[in-house]
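Hi R.,

Here's the chain you asked about this morning:
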Amino acid sequence: MTTKFYLRDPNSKKATPINFCFQYSGKRFVYSTKQSIIPSNWNSKKNKPFSSVTGAMTLNVLLDMIERAAKDAYRQGIIDGKQITNEYLRESLNKELTLHDKNTPFFDALDEFIVINSVIRQPNTIKKYKSLKKHLKTFERIKNRNLTFDSINLKFYDAFTSYLLNDLDHVNNTVSKYIKTLKTYMKWTMERDYHKNDEFIKFSAKEKPADITYLTSDQLFHLNNLKISDETLTLVKDYFCLACFTGLRYSDISQIRKEYFKDGSLFLPIKKTKETIEIPINPFANKILEKYDFDIKVYSNAITNKKLKIIGKLAEFNQEVILKKYKGAETIEIRKPLSEHLTFHLARRTFITLSLEKGIRPEVLMEIVGQKDYKTMKRYIKITQTVKKSEMQKAWGNDDSDEKTKPETKKGFKGDEPRSFSDWLKKT
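And here is the predicted structure, written out as tokens:
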């Protein structure tokens, strides 16, 4: 009798299921643990998560429970004189493990959900889960309710969304994000037989695309050339501009190493997607990278965003920007100078928008920034008036009957289109 836990796909870049293998009397029994983990967090020699991984202790408890249940079922079957088969073992494990899940309180299961997902999800995702728990707890106390799995129905949905909108003064998109997270939790628990309530499927969680702020080409180069005496602010300005020239996320700037740079491109393992992408480096990005010898130290995201607003004022980004948000049926206009809107994520939006303006095709841009589908890409895009006029001119500016077709000078490009990523800023 031998046991082993193994990954379904040990070469996966994303979380992959953990399976349990039990060998007995020349037979092999495989059982799904209903748990997943990113392979880089898995110790293949010890067949368990690395102890340094967040949530490893709780996951090991669950795996030990499965292993112990299988051994107990096998021994008890021998004692009772039963024929040991895979079907017998599966029924025994399902019965034993279901007993542990049955009648688990709503918030106890939510704690388990958070801990287990800590192993396979990004910190920001776990932060959302914890925030949902906090709001549900407060909602239960203030509204004098007792939350159980069976109480999560449409009446609860109406009351909870009203609480988020009116009591907490959240806008529609924020409410939708909490509802999406709640639906994820309810689906996770239903799949693990905590409950049979599928009312949550009816909950609406549609988000309205938010207005996107970005820097124009003139603003970006003004900021890039801005001289600041404070070294701390200069550092923040530089790695913000680097992101504007590459589309890198905040979490990836600190991952840059000199050994990742080859043949004019940065081959960078992306923290969010766990995949390595090739990012062609233009001269402006290269200059910043060389300044810091490809080793840039970054401040926390919160400190970075706070300093960016100071930098925005020094750059005299005083233009008023109007953003629209929606709360219930109400439209809210937020008027602030551009400097107050500066956050690190604006850099990625700037890169994508300016790249599109300068002729980079969306499918090429998606490869550069590591986006999987066009729908996701659209969330970052704000088509400027410049792009609209350019596209209109291309479509209607000339009489097709008189226009001579330009020969292709390079496969996939017309004569006046950029031929390489390094050319993307040359039209400025």
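One quick note: Strands lie at 2-7, 16-24, 27-37, 42-43, 48-49, 261-262, 265-270, 275-280, 320-327, 330-337.

Cheers,
M.
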